[in-house]
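User: Just a sanity check before I run the rest of the batch. Below are the C-alpha coordinates for the first item. I only need the designed sequence back.
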Protein backbone atom coordinates (compact mmCIF):
# COMPACT_ATOMS: atom_id res chain seq x y z
CA UNK A 1 0.00 0.00 0.00
CA UNK A 2 1.19 3.51 -0.75
CA UNK A 3 3.58 4.71 1.94
CA UNK A 4 1.86 8.10 1.99
CA UNK A 5 -1.33 6.48 3.23
CA UNK A 6 -1.87 5.94 6.95
CA UNK A 7 -4.07 2.89 7.45
CA UNK A 8 -7.12 3.69 9.61
CA UNK A 9 -7.76 1.06 12.25
CA UNK A 10 -10.79 -0.01 14.22
CA UNK A 11 -9.00 -2.38 16.60
CA UNK A 12 -10.68 -4.97 18.74
CA UNK A 13 -11.89 -3.75 22.13
CA UNK A 14 -13.97 -5.69 24.58
CA UNK A 15 -17.56 -4.47 24.69
CA UNK A 16 -20.09 -4.61 27.51
CA UNK A 17 -22.29 -6.77 25.24
CA UNK A 18 -19.77 -9.59 25.71
CA UNK A 19 -20.43 -9.63 29.45
CA UNK A 20 -24.20 -9.37 29.27
CA UNK A 21 -26.15 -12.23 30.86
CA UNK A 22 -28.61 -12.16 27.95
CA UNK A 23 -27.86 -11.21 24.34
CA UNK A 24 -27.97 -7.45 23.85
CA UNK A 25 -30.53 -6.25 21.31
CA UNK A 26 -29.61 -3.62 18.71
CA UNK A 27 -31.79 -1.82 16.22
CA UNK A 28 -29.62 -2.52 13.16
CA UNK A 29 -26.49 -4.64 12.77
CA UNK A 30 -24.40 -4.31 9.61
CA UNK A 31 -22.06 -7.17 8.73
CA UNK A 32 -19.01 -5.95 6.81
CA UNK A 33 -17.01 -2.73 7.14
CA UNK A 34 -16.17 -2.28 3.47
CA UNK A 35 -17.46 0.77 1.59
CA UNK A 36 -21.03 -0.52 1.39
CA UNK A 37 -21.35 -1.53 5.03
CA UNK A 38 -19.81 1.73 6.22
CA UNK A 39 -22.10 3.75 3.94
CA UNK A 40 -25.18 1.93 5.26
CA UNK A 41 -24.15 2.51 8.86
CA UNK A 42 -23.39 6.19 8.30
CA UNK A 43 -26.65 6.90 6.50
CA UNK A 44 -28.70 5.26 9.23
CA UNK A 45 -26.77 6.97 12.02
CA UNK A 46 -27.24 10.37 10.38
CA UNK A 47 -30.97 9.74 10.64
CA UNK A 48 -30.72 8.79 14.31
CA UNK A 49 -31.01 5.01 13.84
CA UNK A 50 -28.85 2.99 16.23
CA UNK A 51 -26.43 0.79 14.28
CA UNK A 52 -23.53 -1.56 15.03
CA UNK A 53 -21.05 -2.50 12.27
CA UNK A 54 -19.23 -5.82 12.67
CA UNK A 55 -16.14 -6.86 10.73
CA UNK A 56 -13.69 -9.73 11.10
CA UNK A 57 -10.87 -7.37 10.06
CA UNK A 58 -9.61 -4.37 12.05
CA UNK A 59 -8.48 -1.96 9.32
CA UNK A 60 -9.36 -0.75 5.83
CA UNK A 61 -8.70 -2.99 2.84
CA UNK A 62 -5.35 -3.57 1.17
CA UNK A 63 -4.87 -2.78 -2.51
CA UNK A 64 -6.77 -0.23 -4.56
CA UNK A 65 -9.55 -2.69 -5.57
CA UNK A 66 -12.43 -0.48 -6.75
CA UNK A 67 -10.99 2.71 -8.25
CA UNK A 68 -13.59 4.27 -10.58
CA UNK A 69 -16.34 6.20 -8.82
CA UNK A 70 -19.12 7.60 -10.97
CA UNK A 71 -21.02 10.85 -10.67
CA UNK A 72 -24.13 9.34 -9.07
CA UNK A 73 -22.27 7.59 -6.19
CA UNK A 74 -20.23 10.77 -5.63
CA UNK A 75 -23.52 12.63 -5.17
CA UNK A 76 -24.59 9.95 -2.66
CA UNK A 77 -21.29 10.32 -0.82
CA UNK A 78 -21.92 14.08 -0.65
CA UNK A 79 -24.97 13.32 1.47
CA UNK A 80 -22.89 11.01 3.67
CA UNK A 81 -20.33 13.76 4.29
CA UNK A 82 -17.54 12.13 2.25
CA UNK A 83 -17.97 13.52 -1.26
CA UNK A 84 -15.61 16.49 -1.04
CA UNK A 85 -12.61 14.53 0.33
CA UNK A 86 -13.10 12.11 -2.58
CA UNK A 87 -13.02 14.97 -5.08
CA UNK A 88 -10.07 16.67 -3.39
CA UNK A 89 -7.94 13.52 -3.50
CA UNK A 90 -9.23 11.75 -6.59
CA UNK A 91 -8.12 12.02 -10.20
CA UNK A 92 -10.99 13.61 -12.16
CA UNK A 93 -11.65 12.35 -15.67
CA UNK A 94 -14.35 12.50 -18.29
CA UNK A 95 -12.55 11.30 -21.41
CA UNK A 96 -11.48 7.91 -22.67
CA UNK A 97 -9.70 6.45 -25.68
CA UNK A 98 -10.15 3.13 -27.46
CA UNK A 99 -7.24 1.45 -29.26
CA UNK A 100 -7.20 -1.48 -31.67
CA UNK A 101 -3.90 -3.15 -32.39
CA UNK A 102 -1.37 -0.29 -32.41
CA UNK A 103 -3.70 2.61 -33.28
CA UNK A 104 -6.32 4.79 -31.60
CA UNK A 105 -9.72 4.28 -33.23
CA UNK A 106 -11.68 6.98 -31.36
CA UNK A 107 -12.16 8.85 -28.09
CA UNK A 108 -15.25 9.76 -26.05
CA UNK A 109 -16.49 12.19 -23.40
CA UNK A 110 -18.64 10.79 -20.59
CA UNK A 111 -20.00 14.19 -19.56
CA UNK A 112 -20.56 16.23 -22.71
CA UNK A 113 -22.97 18.64 -20.99
CA UNK A 114 -22.01 21.23 -18.37
CA UNK A 115 -23.90 22.27 -15.25
CA UNK A 116 -23.08 19.41 -12.87
CA UNK A 117 -21.33 19.88 -9.55
CA UNK A 118 -19.61 16.49 -9.78
CA UNK A 119 -17.56 15.03 -12.65
CA UNK A 120 -18.50 11.97 -14.65
CA UNK A 121 -15.87 9.89 -12.84
CA UNK A 122 -12.96 10.07 -10.46
CA UNK A 123 -10.25 7.50 -9.93
CA UNK A 124 -9.35 6.84 -6.31
CA UNK A 125 -8.07 3.79 -4.51
CA UNK A 126 -10.74 2.02 -2.47
CA UNK A 127 -8.69 2.30 0.70
CA UNK A 128 -9.06 6.09 0.56
CA UNK A 129 -12.85 5.80 0.32
CA UNK A 130 -12.89 3.43 3.28
CA UNK A 131 -10.62 5.79 5.22
CA UNK A 132 -12.93 8.77 4.57
CA UNK A 133 -15.93 6.69 5.63
CA UNK A 134 -14.19 5.60 8.86
CA UNK A 135 -13.28 9.25 9.52
CA UNK A 136 -16.90 10.23 8.99
CA UNK A 137 -18.04 7.46 11.33
CA UNK A 138 -15.67 8.77 14.03
CA UNK A 139 -16.96 12.30 13.45
CA UNK A 140 -20.54 11.13 13.93
CA UNK A 141 -19.53 9.32 17.12
CA UNK A 142 -17.99 12.55 18.44
CA UNK A 143 -21.30 14.26 17.71
CA UNK A 144 -23.18 11.64 19.71
CA UNK A 145 -24.68 9.72 16.78
CA UNK A 146 -25.71 6.14 17.66
CA UNK A 147 -23.06 4.28 15.63
CA UNK A 148 -20.18 1.98 16.52
CA UNK A 149 -17.78 -0.28 14.67
CA UNK A 150 -16.33 -3.47 16.16
CA UNK A 151 -13.19 -4.88 14.60
CA UNK A 152 -12.23 -8.55 14.80
CA UNK A 153 -15.87 -9.44 15.45
CA UNK A 154 -16.58 -12.32 13.08
CA UNK A 155 -20.17 -13.50 12.67
CA UNK A 156 -20.06 -17.29 12.87
CA UNK A 157 -23.77 -18.19 13.10
CA UNK A 158 -27.08 -16.51 12.25
CA UNK A 159 -30.62 -17.36 13.24
CA UNK A 160 -33.66 -15.71 11.69
CA UNK A 161 -36.96 -15.04 13.50
CA UNK A 162 -40.14 -13.16 12.58
CA UNK A 163 -39.18 -10.05 14.58
CA UNK A 164 -35.39 -10.25 14.96
CA UNK A 165 -32.13 -11.91 13.97
CA UNK A 166 -29.72 -13.69 16.32
CA UNK A 167 -25.96 -13.69 15.80
CA UNK A 168 -23.07 -15.60 17.30
CA UNK A 169 -19.85 -13.62 17.09
CA UNK A 170 -16.27 -14.83 17.48
CA UNK A 171 -13.65 -12.49 18.95
CA UNK A 172 -10.06 -12.82 20.22
CA UNK A 173 -11.58 -13.23 23.70
CA UNK A 174 -14.17 -15.82 22.79
CA UNK A 175 -17.68 -15.90 21.41
CA UNK A 176 -20.75 -13.90 22.40
CA UNK A 177 -24.32 -13.47 21.13
CA UNK A 178 -26.26 -10.49 19.86
CA UNK A 179 -29.77 -9.81 18.62
CA UNK A 180 -30.75 -7.32 15.92
CA UNK A 181 -34.11 -6.00 14.85
CA UNK A 182 -32.63 -5.82 11.35
CA UNK A 183 -29.47 -7.21 9.77
CA UNK A 184 -27.84 -5.72 6.66
CA UNK A 185 -25.34 -8.09 5.03
CA UNK A 186 -22.56 -6.21 3.24
CA UNK A 187 -19.94 -8.93 3.56
CA UNK A 188 -18.80 -9.22 -0.05
CA UNK A 189 -19.10 -11.62 -2.96
CA UNK A 190 -18.20 -14.59 -0.77
CA UNK A 191 -20.81 -13.46 1.81
CA UNK A 192 -20.62 -15.75 4.86
CA UNK A 193 -24.07 -14.43 5.80
CA UNK A 194 -25.53 -15.68 2.54
CA UNK A 195 -23.76 -19.00 2.96
CA UNK A 196 -24.88 -19.49 6.56
CA UNK A 197 -28.49 -18.89 5.54
CA UNK A 198 -28.15 -21.33 2.63
CA UNK A 199 -29.21 -18.77 0.04
CA UNK A 200 -28.61 -18.82 -3.70
CA UNK A 201 -26.07 -16.83 -5.75
CA UNK A 202 -26.55 -17.86 -9.34
CA UNK A 203 -25.38 -16.54 -12.67
CA UNK A 204 -22.55 -16.86 -15.13
CA UNK A 205 -18.81 -17.33 -14.74
CA UNK A 206 -16.85 -16.33 -17.85
CA UNK A 207 -13.88 -18.43 -18.86
CA UNK A 208 -11.27 -15.72 -18.72
CA UNK A 209 -8.84 -14.20 -16.22
CA UNK A 210 -7.44 -10.73 -15.84
CA UNK A 211 -4.33 -9.52 -14.07
CA UNK A 212 -4.70 -6.35 -12.00
CA UNK A 213 -1.48 -4.51 -11.22
CA UNK A 214 -1.21 -1.28 -9.26
CA UNK A 215 2.05 0.28 -10.40
CA UNK A 216 3.86 3.26 -8.87
CA UNK A 217 5.60 5.22 -11.61
CA UNK A 218 6.17 8.66 -13.09
CA UNK A 219 4.44 8.76 -16.46
CA UNK A 220 3.14 11.46 -18.77
CA UNK A 221 0.02 9.62 -19.90
CA UNK A 222 -3.02 11.94 -19.79
CA UNK A 223 -5.77 11.55 -17.20
CA UNK A 224 -8.00 9.38 -19.35
CA UNK A 225 -9.31 5.82 -19.54
CA UNK A 226 -7.33 3.91 -22.17
CA UNK A 227 -8.57 0.55 -23.41
CA UNK A 228 -6.80 -1.66 -25.95
CA UNK A 229 -8.18 -4.50 -28.04
CA UNK A 230 -5.49 -6.90 -29.32
CA UNK A 231 -2.51 -4.63 -28.51
CA UNK A 232 1.01 -5.53 -29.68
CA UNK A 233 2.11 -6.05 -26.07
CA UNK A 234 -0.73 -8.50 -25.27
CA UNK A 235 -1.67 -10.17 -28.54
CA UNK A 236 -5.11 -11.69 -28.82
CA UNK A 237 -6.14 -10.16 -25.50
CA UNK A 238 -7.07 -6.73 -24.08
CA UNK A 239 -5.63 -4.16 -21.68
CA UNK A 240 -6.79 -1.18 -19.60
CA UNK A 241 -4.90 1.77 -18.10
CA UNK A 242 -6.13 4.22 -15.46
CA UNK A 243 -4.37 6.91 -13.45
CA UNK A 244 -4.79 7.08 -9.67
CA UNK A 245 -3.48 9.52 -7.04
CA UNK A 246 0.02 9.32 -5.55
CA UNK A 247 1.64 8.28 -8.82
CA UNK A 248 -0.23 4.95 -8.87
CA UNK A 249 -1.49 3.52 -12.17
CA UNK A 250 -3.99 0.69 -12.54
CA UNK A 251 -3.22 -1.77 -15.33
CA UNK A 252 -5.54 -4.65 -16.28
CA UNK A 253 -4.19 -7.31 -18.63
CA UNK A 254 -6.30 -10.13 -20.05
CA UNK A 255 -4.57 -13.50 -19.54
CA UNK A 256 -6.97 -16.14 -20.85
CA UNK A 257 -8.64 -19.04 -19.09
CA UNK A 258 -6.22 -21.94 -18.64
CA UNK A 259 -3.56 -20.35 -16.41
CA UNK A 260 -1.82 -20.96 -13.11
CA UNK A 261 -3.08 -17.98 -11.10
CA UNK A 262 -0.47 -18.16 -8.35
CA UNK A 263 2.32 -18.40 -10.88
CA UNK A 264 1.01 -15.47 -12.93
CA UNK A 265 0.94 -13.24 -9.81
CA UNK A 266 4.64 -13.67 -9.12
CA UNK A 267 6.70 -10.51 -9.76
CA UNK A 268 9.06 -12.34 -12.11
CA UNK A 269 6.08 -13.03 -14.39
CA UNK A 270 4.18 -9.76 -13.91
CA UNK A 271 7.11 -7.40 -14.52
CA UNK A 272 7.93 -8.64 -18.07
CA UNK A 273 4.27 -8.18 -19.06
CA UNK A 274 4.31 -4.61 -17.77
CA UNK A 275 7.62 -3.81 -19.47
CA UNK A 276 6.20 -5.04 -22.76
CA UNK A 277 3.35 -2.55 -22.32
CA UNK A 278 5.21 0.42 -20.83
CA UNK A 279 8.66 0.02 -22.37
CA UNK A 280 11.96 -1.11 -20.85
CA UNK A 281 12.97 2.47 -20.09
CA UNK A 282 10.02 3.14 -17.73
CA UNK A 283 10.86 2.59 -14.07
CA UNK A 284 8.06 1.36 -11.84
CA UNK A 285 7.31 -0.49 -8.61
CA UNK A 286 4.58 -3.04 -8.05
CA UNK A 287 2.25 -1.98 -5.26
CA UNK A 288 -0.47 -4.62 -5.51
CA UNK A 289 -1.23 -7.57 -7.80
CA UNK A 290 -4.33 -9.70 -8.10
CA UNK A 291 -6.09 -11.92 -10.62
CA UNK A 292 -9.84 -11.93 -11.11
CA UNK A 293 -12.30 -13.99 -13.10
CA UNK A 294 -15.34 -12.38 -14.73
CA UNK A 295 -18.48 -13.31 -12.84
CA UNK A 296 -22.03 -12.03 -13.22
CA UNK A 297 -24.23 -13.38 -10.44
CA UNK A 298 -26.96 -12.26 -8.08
CA UNK A 299 -29.28 -13.50 -5.39
CA UNK A 300 -32.85 -14.13 -6.48
CA UNK A 301 -34.08 -11.88 -3.64
CA UNK A 302 -32.17 -9.24 -1.69
CA UNK A 303 -34.57 -9.34 1.25
CA UNK A 304 -35.07 -12.42 3.42
CA UNK A 305 -37.34 -11.42 6.27
CA UNK A 306 -35.28 -9.24 8.58
CA UNK A 307 -32.03 -9.86 6.69
CA UNK A 308 -31.25 -7.49 3.83
CA UNK A 309 -28.37 -7.92 1.38
CA UNK A 310 -26.47 -5.12 -0.37
CA UNK A 311 -23.41 -4.68 -2.56
CA UNK A 312 -21.36 -7.67 -3.69
CA UNK A 313 -23.13 -9.84 -1.12
CA UNK A 314 -26.29 -9.41 -3.23
CA UNK A 315 -24.84 -9.17 -6.74
CA UNK A 316 -21.53 -9.40 -8.55
CA UNK A 317 -20.45 -8.12 -11.97
CA UNK A 318 -17.19 -7.94 -13.89
CA UNK A 319 -14.97 -4.94 -13.07
CA UNK A 320 -15.17 -3.42 -16.56
CA UNK A 321 -17.84 -0.73 -16.35
CA UNK A 322 -17.23 0.30 -12.72
CA UNK A 323 -20.43 -1.23 -11.39
CA UNK A 324 -19.29 -2.93 -8.18
CA UNK A 325 -18.90 -0.29 -5.46
CA UNK A 326 -20.95 2.19 -7.51
CA UNK A 327 -24.01 -0.08 -7.56
CA UNK A 328 -23.49 -1.05 -3.92
CA UNK A 329 -23.67 2.59 -2.83
CA UNK A 330 -26.92 2.90 -4.78
CA UNK A 331 -28.20 -0.15 -2.89
CA UNK A 332 -27.74 1.48 0.50
CA UNK A 333 -29.07 4.80 -0.80
CA UNK A 334 -32.25 2.98 -1.80
CA UNK A 335 -32.52 0.87 1.33
CA UNK A 336 -31.74 3.08 4.30
CA UNK A 337 -34.50 5.70 3.99
CA UNK A 338 -37.04 2.91 3.65
CA UNK A 339 -35.69 1.05 6.66
CA UNK A 340 -35.79 4.29 8.68
CA UNK A 341 -39.49 4.77 7.88
CA UNK A 342 -40.24 1.16 8.85
CA UNK A 343 -38.32 1.48 12.13
CA UNK A 344 -40.15 4.74 12.94
CA UNK A 345 -43.51 3.07 12.28
CA UNK A 346 -44.28 5.40 9.36
CA UNK A 347 -44.31 2.58 6.83
CA UNK A 348 -45.03 -1.12 6.94
CA UNK A 349 -42.36 -3.75 6.39
CA UNK A 350 -43.76 -4.25 2.89
CA UNK A 351 -41.98 -1.02 1.84
CA UNK A 352 -38.75 -3.03 2.02
CA UNK A 353 -40.07 -5.27 -0.73
CA UNK A 354 -39.65 -2.26 -3.03
CA UNK A 355 -35.93 -2.24 -2.13
CA UNK A 356 -35.73 -5.80 -3.38
CA UNK A 357 -37.72 -5.02 -6.54
CA UNK A 358 -35.89 -1.81 -7.46
CA UNK A 359 -32.35 -2.98 -6.73
CA UNK A 360 -32.88 -6.36 -8.38
CA UNK A 361 -33.83 -4.30 -11.44
CA UNK A 362 -30.61 -2.33 -11.01
CA UNK A 363 -28.58 -5.54 -10.65
CA UNK A 364 -30.18 -7.07 -13.73
CA UNK A 365 -29.37 -3.94 -15.74
CA UNK A 366 -25.76 -4.05 -14.54
CA UNK A 367 -25.42 -7.77 -15.23
CA UNK A 368 -26.82 -7.33 -18.74
CA UNK A 369 -24.38 -4.53 -19.53
CA UNK A 370 -21.49 -6.35 -17.88
CA UNK A 371 -22.22 -9.58 -19.76
CA UNK A 372 -22.40 -7.75 -23.08
CA UNK A 373 -19.09 -6.02 -22.32
CA UNK A 374 -17.45 -9.31 -21.47
CA UNK A 375 -18.76 -11.00 -24.62
CA UNK A 376 -17.39 -8.13 -26.72
CA UNK A 377 -14.01 -8.04 -24.95
CA UNK A 378 -13.59 -11.83 -25.03
CA UNK A 379 -15.30 -13.25 -28.15
CA UNK A 380 -16.22 -16.92 -27.76
CA UNK A 381 -15.86 -17.91 -31.42
CA UNK A 382 -13.80 -16.96 -34.44
CA UNK A 383 -16.90 -15.51 -36.13
CA UNK A 384 -17.61 -13.32 -33.07
CA UNK A 385 -14.01 -12.11 -33.12
CA UNK A 386 -14.18 -11.26 -36.83
CA UNK A 387 -17.40 -9.29 -36.27
CA UNK A 388 -15.91 -7.45 -33.29
CA UNK A 389 -12.74 -6.56 -35.19
CA UNK A 390 -14.80 -5.28 -38.14
CA UNK A 391 -16.75 -3.01 -35.76
CA UNK A 392 -13.47 -1.68 -34.33
CA UNK A 393 -12.09 -1.00 -37.80
CA UNK A 394 -15.26 0.85 -38.82
CA UNK A 395 -15.32 2.91 -35.61
CA UNK A 396 -12.05 4.63 -36.55
CA UNK A 397 -13.70 6.55 -39.40
CA UNK A 398 -17.47 6.10 -38.93
CA UNK A 399 -19.32 7.45 -35.90
CA UNK A 400 -22.29 5.09 -36.38
CA UNK A 401 -20.09 2.12 -35.40
CA UNK A 402 -18.79 3.60 -32.14
CA UNK A 403 -21.86 2.83 -30.01
CA UNK A 404 -21.38 -0.82 -31.01
CA UNK A 405 -17.92 -0.91 -29.41
CA UNK A 406 -18.16 -2.20 -25.86
CA UNK A 407 -15.03 -1.89 -23.75
CA UNK A 408 -17.16 -1.75 -20.62
CA UNK A 409 -20.34 0.34 -20.65
CA UNK A 410 -19.69 2.65 -17.72
CA UNK A 411 -21.93 2.90 -14.67
CA UNK A 412 -25.18 4.84 -14.93
CA UNK A 413 -27.95 5.13 -12.31
CA UNK A 414 -30.89 2.81 -12.79
CA UNK A 415 -34.30 4.29 -13.60
CA UNK A 416 -36.92 2.36 -11.61
CA UNK A 417 -39.51 2.09 -14.34
CA UNK A 418 -42.49 0.10 -13.11
CA UNK A 419 -41.74 0.62 -9.42
CA UNK A 420 -44.84 0.41 -7.20
CA UNK A 421 -43.65 3.64 -5.55
CA UNK A 422 -44.03 5.65 -8.80
CA UNK A 423 -47.12 7.64 -9.64
CA UNK A 424 -48.28 7.95 -13.23
CA UNK A 425 -46.36 10.56 -15.20
CA UNK A 426 -48.62 13.58 -15.67
CA UNK A 427 -46.05 16.00 -17.16
CA UNK A 428 -46.74 15.14 -20.78
CA UNK A 429 -44.13 17.49 -22.23
CA UNK A 430 -41.56 16.67 -19.57
CA UNK A 431 -38.10 15.30 -20.37
CA UNK A 432 -37.68 11.53 -20.53
CA UNK A 433 -34.64 11.70 -18.25
CA UNK A 434 -36.67 12.94 -15.25
CA UNK A 435 -39.71 10.67 -15.56
CA UNK A 436 -40.90 8.94 -12.36
CA UNK A 437 -38.34 6.39 -11.16
CA UNK A 438 -35.35 8.31 -12.50
CA UNK A 439 -32.47 9.75 -10.50
CA UNK A 440 -32.54 13.54 -10.40
CA UNK A 441 -29.89 15.14 -12.61
CA UNK A 442 -28.03 18.11 -11.20
CA UNK A 443 -28.51 21.66 -12.49
CA UNK A 444 -26.73 24.94 -11.73
CA UNK A 445 -28.55 27.51 -9.60
CA UNK A 446 -26.46 30.65 -9.62
CA UNK A 447 -23.43 29.93 -7.45
CA UNK A 448 -24.98 26.69 -6.16
CA UNK A 449 -26.40 23.44 -7.54
CA UNK A 450 -29.75 21.69 -7.29
CA UNK A 451 -28.87 18.34 -5.69
CA UNK A 452 -27.45 19.73 -2.41
CA UNK A 453 -30.72 21.62 -1.97
CA UNK A 454 -32.73 18.40 -2.27
CA UNK A 455 -30.84 16.76 0.59
CA UNK A 456 -32.00 13.35 1.82
CA UNK A 457 -35.67 13.84 2.60
CA UNK A 458 -38.91 13.98 0.63
CA UNK A 459 -39.07 17.30 -1.23
CA UNK A 460 -41.81 19.00 -3.20
CA UNK A 461 -39.90 20.70 -6.00
CA UNK A 462 -41.83 23.42 -7.83
CA UNK A 463 -40.51 25.15 -10.93
CA UNK A 464 -42.49 28.26 -11.83
CA UNK A 465 -45.53 26.76 -10.08
CA UNK A 466 -47.48 27.57 -6.91
CA UNK A 467 -47.83 25.11 -4.02
CA UNK A 468 -48.04 25.09 -0.20
CA UNK A 469 -44.76 25.60 1.65
CA UNK A 470 -45.26 22.16 3.16
CA UNK A 471 -47.72 19.29 3.23
CA UNK A 472 -48.25 16.67 5.92
CA UNK A 473 -49.49 13.25 4.86
CA UNK A 474 -48.93 9.64 5.95
CA UNK A 475 -47.10 10.85 9.04
CA UNK A 476 -44.56 12.81 6.97
CA UNK A 477 -44.06 16.53 6.54
CA UNK A 478 -42.73 17.44 3.12
CA UNK A 479 -41.27 20.87 2.54
CA UNK A 480 -41.34 22.78 -0.73
CA UNK A 481 -38.29 23.88 -2.73
CA UNK A 482 -39.49 26.68 -5.00
CA UNK A 483 -37.40 27.43 -8.09
CA UNK A 484 -37.75 29.34 -11.33
CA UNK A 485 -36.00 28.81 -14.62
CA UNK A 486 -34.74 32.33 -14.02
CA UNK A 487 -32.55 30.83 -11.27
CA UNK A 488 -30.48 29.12 -13.95
CA UNK A 489 -29.19 31.28 -16.78
CA UNK A 490 -27.74 28.21 -18.54
CA UNK A 491 -31.14 26.73 -19.37
CA UNK A 492 -30.25 23.38 -17.77
CA UNK A 493 -33.17 23.47 -15.30
CA UNK A 494 -35.63 24.01 -18.12
CA UNK A 495 -34.01 21.37 -20.29
CA UNK A 496 -33.67 18.68 -17.60
CA UNK A 497 -36.91 19.17 -15.65
CA UNK A 498 -39.46 20.97 -17.85
CA UNK A 499 -38.61 20.28 -21.46
CA UNK A 500 -41.35 22.04 -23.41
CA UNK A 501 -43.61 22.44 -20.35
CA UNK A 502 -43.93 25.98 -18.90
CA UNK A 503 -43.97 24.72 -15.29
CA UNK A 504 -43.65 21.57 -13.25
CA UNK A 505 -44.05 20.11 -9.76
CA UNK A 506 -42.01 17.10 -8.64
CA UNK A 507 -42.20 14.84 -5.60
CA UNK A 508 -38.61 13.76 -4.90
CA UNK A 509 -37.74 10.76 -2.70
CA UNK A 510 -34.99 10.85 -0.03
CA UNK A 511 -32.67 8.99 -2.44
CA UNK A 512 -33.26 11.78 -4.97
CA UNK A 513 -35.31 9.64 -7.35
CA UNK A 514 -38.48 11.09 -8.82
CA UNK A 515 -41.69 9.70 -7.32
CA UNK A 516 -44.20 11.87 -9.21
CA UNK A 517 -44.42 14.90 -11.47
CA UNK A 518 -47.24 17.09 -12.78
CA UNK A 519 -47.51 20.40 -14.64
CA UNK A 520 -48.98 22.10 -11.55
CA UNK A 521 -49.75 21.36 -7.92
CA UNK A 522 -52.83 19.23 -7.24
CA UNK A 523 -53.27 18.61 -3.52
CA UNK A 524 -55.13 15.33 -3.78
CA UNK A 525 -52.78 13.94 -6.41
CA UNK A 526 -49.58 14.78 -4.53
CA UNK A 527 -50.91 13.49 -1.23
CA UNK A 528 -51.77 10.24 -3.00
CA UNK A 529 -48.31 10.22 -4.59
CA UNK A 530 -46.68 10.58 -1.17
CA UNK A 531 -48.75 7.74 0.25
CA UNK A 532 -47.78 5.62 -2.73
CA UNK A 533 -44.09 6.49 -2.33
CA UNK A 534 -44.09 5.09 1.20
CA UNK A 535 -46.12 2.02 0.30
CA UNK A 536 -49.46 3.17 1.68
CA UNK A 537 -51.44 3.62 -1.53
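Assistant: Here's the designed sequence for the first item:
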Amino acid sequence: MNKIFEIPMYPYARHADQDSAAPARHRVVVVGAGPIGLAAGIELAQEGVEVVILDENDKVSFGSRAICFAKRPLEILDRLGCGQPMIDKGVLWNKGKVFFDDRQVYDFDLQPETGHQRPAFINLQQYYLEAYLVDRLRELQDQGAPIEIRGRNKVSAIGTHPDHVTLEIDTPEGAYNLEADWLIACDGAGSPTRRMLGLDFVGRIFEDNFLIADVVMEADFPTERWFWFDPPFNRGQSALLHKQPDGVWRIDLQLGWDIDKEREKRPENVIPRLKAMLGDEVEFELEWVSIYTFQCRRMENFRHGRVLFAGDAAHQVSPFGARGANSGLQDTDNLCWKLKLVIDGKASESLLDSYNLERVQGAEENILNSSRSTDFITPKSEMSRLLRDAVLDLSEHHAFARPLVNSGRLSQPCTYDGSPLNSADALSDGPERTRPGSACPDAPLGDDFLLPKLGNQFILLTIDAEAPDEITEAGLTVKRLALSVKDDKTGALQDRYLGKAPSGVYLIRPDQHVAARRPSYDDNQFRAALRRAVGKE
